[in-house]
Amino acid sequence: MSAMIPHLPFEMHTPDEKVWLSLQPHLLSRGYRLRPRYEPGWIPSWTRIPGVYPTECEDSLRRVGKLIDAIRISDGSKVVIKQVDTSTSELPLAMKLSSAELRSDPRNHAVPALDVILIPGNDDMALLVMPFLMDFNDLPFRHVGEVVEMVEQFLECLEFLHEHNITHMDFCWFNLMMDASRMVPRGWHFCNPWKHDGSTRGGFGWLDRWTVRPVKYYLIDFELTVPEMSETVSADSFKVDVYQLGNVIKKLTKKYTGLSVLKSLAKKMTNPDPLKRLTAHEAVKTFRCRKSKWTARSMERRVWRRTTPFIDRFMVKYRNFNAII
């Protein structure tokens, strides 16, 4: 997650940004170009255009933390680069999950490692290159089947990880991502996912997941955080993963109308007694048993964010591109 951005003038780089500035030449030599804001000799664009505010310009946007976006020069694709502490297991685990053997399993929804960049003279940190993804909840769900598709993929991922004796320990809302490239053909900005180019001007168009399905989902951030533990009884880390994913499903059923088909599964996955809680394999089996009884029509049913005004649910019209409701 990104830290809060200090109140600095837009033309000044934060301390976290300065780290990326120092890495820019090495990244460029390895084939990755950062945004203009992080290039040597950068001059803020708004200082050269009379009457333009910094917030109207893409190069005023900054996102502080261990992550940054870049362009892979070889094919022009967007990627995300993460600073990884080499003393942790995150890097070797990312490489293991990205091996040809494990990637051949369709249940493997761990974010793939596209590249690993070592930093000359720095043995404490390496750079992990990953696909450019969007938070799974940045765009609203429109149909029951869209949520079901997402839930199935993450249940499969959980089962896959546990079969390989891997626990994530932070299988939560903010670590679930999606490949939105077909949903948002014009792309989105790393610092402002509701703008195509980061500018405050212009609208934002996107397509329903249902019209471009299947949408692929990914689990990120394998830093292996400390599990929830009581002072006397240690939690089963595998059951913690199940609880966390179950909590995501439960949160979705509260956030949206029309998702009653998932409530029972979420309840079984979040049983307060770990001994009575489903395992990942049992959760997948339960889900598939119920899915076999759901009709295509039931999957096409419209779902709504509960915060959507009642009248808007009747006024909205289906279009190729949608507004965020």
Description:
- This is Protein kinase domain-containing protein.
- It is a single chain.
- This protein is of the alpha+beta class and 325 residues long.
- It has two domains: 15-131, Phosphorylase Kinase, domain 1 (2-Layer Sandwich); 134-319, Transferase(Phosphotransferase), domain 1, CATH 1.10.510.
- The protein is built from ten helices and eight strands.
- The protein has helices spanning 15-29, 90-97, 100-103, 144-163, 209-212, 237-255, 263-269, 280-291, 296-300, 312-315; strands at residues 32-33, 67-72, 77-85, 115-119, 122-131, 134-135, 176-178, 217-219.
- It has a five-stranded antiparallel β-sheet with strand order 1-2-3-5-4, with helices on one face. The protein has a three-stranded antiparallel β-sheet with strand order 6-7-8, covered by helices on one side.
- A hairpin with a 2-residue loop joins strand 4 and strand 5 (122-131).
- Helix 4 packs antiparallel against helix 8 and helix 6 (237-255) packs antiparallel against helix 7.
- It is globular and about 60 Å long.
- Mean pLDDT is 90; it is low at 226-233 and 317-321.
